[in-house]
Design a protein that fits this description.
6-stranded mixed beta sheet, DNA-binding, alpha/beta, homodimer
Chain lengths: 339, 339
DNA sequence: TACTTGGGCGCAATCGTTTGTAGTATCGTT
DNA sequence: AACGATACTACAAACGATTGCGCCCAAGTA
């Protein structure tokens, strides 16, 4: 019921041809039609509550006014803010957001992207890429602009919005150093991810920068960004280096895993051994003790990605740049001066 | 580049008219065309990698093969699983998911819904309704089926997929009673939400059921489902009833808030006073002590909502039913026998 | 043989827009 | 008064599919 009012209705109401109505309604072509007529059409449109049919328009203009957002795992709290940030800017420009969940592995992610391309999304935001990934070129084949978020490719000229891992680790290391820590260890993320590598490198670099010993021995890699692998790594690290007074973890969960390893040795988190996390996921402030963590502006990251994508879709052929957003440090109870 | 192969191309390749090709490709009409021809067309389509243009199809059939999902706050970890669950079943049927974030208040939620209707979504999943809400009728005006999820209306015949609050609170109360607790309190959610009310009622009912005293005095309402209001409520409750040995909280954050109030009194969580949460959000197992919580199958909730919506969109005029999914209990360290 | 029946297919309209082109006033110019 | 230029506006063809209708031809019946 309540049959959609079409452009034809507006045209009839305004006493003009539908093509004239179309031009009058479109800001970029309304200059070619008589101002009085424009007024009349606009009035009619308003009176009838006219809304253009997105499908019809899309069919003609080859635009769907929608962008696809592909997420490796919707259930990861990290991606909520990214989605929210992107949505908030896309919605302003009249775009809708198709979200795809690629939680069934890498090949699944590719079919998700393929589906979206088939639906003629005008652009893509990918949070799923691994270091060598065919998806962006897949999209390029369809002339669909792509922006990467959170992770990036090894060396492809695809615009990406990332957290500044170097700066972030710097915040943690400098914070610990300023508290007086000199023996600091690192629980690294898996080296198959760009973040795992970058944070490890940053750690070494900042340690040297602070005049501290940067022995590769004080770094232990967790097999995955989860608590269990983190515990294994922390355990090994503390076995090898019982003299450590602080640990910089590449991820919040890895940081929390350190709690367990530290307590298993009868030591106290924050007083005997300080710990920092990375990402600042929710609820960290309710931990015992609350976990000091590097905070990434994920919401802003999503917004920035959307803004960049909008530019690309508008045809701005600016050189694809990688933007690194500045992190901050949420200081809490898990860090303190060494005994 | 790589110009999309259209139905016309397939028809030419197969040596038939485009209308015949269309019928051959469509399972529901392929019976009227010669099996040999169908085979030929299918072959041509496969060879050319034909994919129907969703916009063109939608324009003609008035279907977009997309459903809108409106969420009050994407950043709430609760909604990740709901989205994931819905997506997993929708994607099977070829539907895409448009997600809308209504984090700027109720009126914003309405414009989000309006936007989606304008885009001609084939159905809507709403997680945003308040007890009296105009959105469903708005959608009904456009003949768009709606399914509610997580929350429901006061008394409108709209299908809804909910957690079974009565059963959930029952799990918590029975668990505590079986541990030997007899003086149990309740931190209720705001009575402006359907869940706040339902859980409070369920608490009273189960207490009586267990033969325990169900004094309205042992219930304290938190102003909102957050830690701070929860702390205020827990504080008041423990002031009034220092004899309580257990607290059932209407929400995980309220449960965690109890930790603080309990410790502020020099007591110990899990031994002196047991606490249960509700929802089972991530990371609860890393708390000190880990929070025992009623677990809602949110992912299944999303999946169920999508399945119901699919039925409605298919025209199954089954009586709109409210489905309540059975919760379970994740028993952890925050509950134990009373001293 | 003529006539009906119906299976299989093509024709063309349609969905609601956008947009290239052609047409028609109106105006100023000579 | 006749002309071209200017400024609007209408016409119609797309976009890529679906679908009611009618045509054609082969098979079945009398």
């Amino acid at each position: 019921m309540a049959d959609r009012t079409t452009l034809k209705d507006v045209a009839r109401e305004a006493g003009v041809h539908v093509s004239t109505a179309s031009r009058a309604l479109n800001p970029s072509t309304s200059s070619v039609v008589n101002p009085d007529t424009v007024e009349r059409v606009l009035g009619a449109a308003r009176r009838l509550g006219y809304r253009p049919h997105p499908l019809a328009r899309g069919l003609r203009t080859n635009q769907t006014m929608s962008v696809g957002v592909v997420i490796p795992d919707v259930e990861n709290p990290l991606f909520g803010p990214i989605i929210a940030g992107a949505e908030s800017v896309l919605v302003e420009e009249g775009y809708s957001m198709l979200i795809g969940n690629a939680d069934r592995g890498q090949s699944h992610a590719e079919t998700v992207v393929a589906d979206m391309l088939e639906r003629h999304v005008d652009g893509l935001i990918l949070a799923t890429v691994i270091r060598k990934d065919p998806q962006p070129s897949l999209a390029a084949g369809h002339n669909v602009p792509v922006v990467l978020v959170n992770r990036t490719l090894d060396n492809d000229p695809v615009p990406a919005i990332l957290g500044d891992d170097h700066a972030g680790i710097g915040l943690a290391v400098k914070h610990l150093a300023s508290l007086g820590h000199r023996r600091i260890g690192h629980i690294a993320g898996p080296s198959s991810t760009s973040t795992g590598l970058a944070r490890r490198d940053a750690f070494m670099s900042w340690m040297r920068n602070e005049g501290l010993e940067a022995d590769p021995e004080v770094v232990e890699e967790a097999e995955w960004y989860q608590v269990e692998p983190g515990y294994v790594a922390a355990d090994a690290l503390l076995d090898r280096h019982p003299e450590l007074t602080a640990i910089v973890a590449a991820n919040d969960l890895l940081g929390l895993a350190c709690y367990r390893a530290i307590r298993a040795r009868g030591k106290d988190v924050g007083t005997d051994i300080s710990v920092t996390g990375y990402n600042d996921i929710p609820l960290l402030d309710l931990m015992q003790p609350p976990l000091t963590a590097v905070r990434i502006p994920y919401r802003q990251m999503g917004a920035q990605a959307a803004a960049t994508l909008l530019k690309l879709m508008a045809g701005d052929a600016e050189p694809p740049a990688t933007i690194r957003l500045a992190p901050s440090l949420a200081v809490r109870g898990s860090t303190g001066s060494p005994r």
